[in-house]
Amino acid sequence: MNIIKKHKNIIIKLSLGILFLVLISIYIFNLNIRKIFNLVLLSFIIAYILKPLKIYIAKHTKIKEKKVALLIILGILIIAIFSIVLLIPTMFKEMNNIGPMINKLTESIEDFFLTSNIGNSTFLKFLYEDGRERISSFINSFSGSIVEHIIAFSEDIMSFAVVPVITYYFLADDEFIWNKCSLLIPIKKRELVKKIIKDINKLLESYIVGQLLLSLIVGIITFIALILVRVKFPLWLSILNGIFNIIPYFGPIFGAVPVVFIALLESPTKALWAALAILIIQQVEGNILSPKITGNSTNMHPLVIIILLLIGESFCGFVGMILAVPIGVIIKVIYEDINYYIF
Known about the structure:
Layout (H helix, E strand, L loop, with lengths): L1 H5 L1 H22 L1 H31 L3 H50 L7 H34 L1 H5 L1 H10 L1 H9 L4 H43 L4 H11 L6 H16 L1 H26 L8 H41 L1
């Protein structure tokens, strides 16, 4: 009995470590548990993103926070339903138009090869054939992956239906949930943990709100620019560019590729104008909008951010790149606060 009391802290830490490993193992090997955890995590992330909006509305309207949370969730659901009803049919219609545009482009390139001396070059012929196969393969796989994701989403629609409900409770009862969770923290460590969470929240809130606002502005500017240049599918390309813009450094490049590619399917001149428009938007975003809206909200060196993005991409692809910087911010704050607390 005395031995247990003497090594109580070690036993507790060891037990928590074993429990953590067991939970990780269950998550990795049990598909149902993984689905439930992912849905809860998704709901938590959405609630966290919406929290500043809830606080702002409650502060300026004097409506109770629970009612504000309900209004926000209902508003998002209405927008989502209208978007699905109005935009999805348009998306499929526009996707069907891409095939003829690609055929037109390949025919133009083939005519160019046949009517010029360039076509006599074996090396250039190889490049052309290889490029055509790669583009065709990419389009087929891209279209197939979209269809697969839509089918998968349709199959899991009942699972995703609980996300708004869980999100509402995270958003409406955030203080209550936090107070209950804080009771699990040892009293001696409670102040440190509260400070860490406060610092994380301060940096993350600034970064997330800034990136989302920046992406929204970039998406709107892109839509206007593509309308002026008369590039097809301006709505979807601007939405895509806005989403990609959430990712620092690499995002604007990812967003530019589909815009220039779609413009190239119409004509090289239009592709040049589209590329110029995207370049101007990127310069405005990088030199004017970003410093004013986000600044250096993460307090991290650009090289560190790039490394985090590469690590995130290697583990979870596009989603990993979106989550890489927030996770990096969390690790940075935990390290700095614990280091300050100890030393």
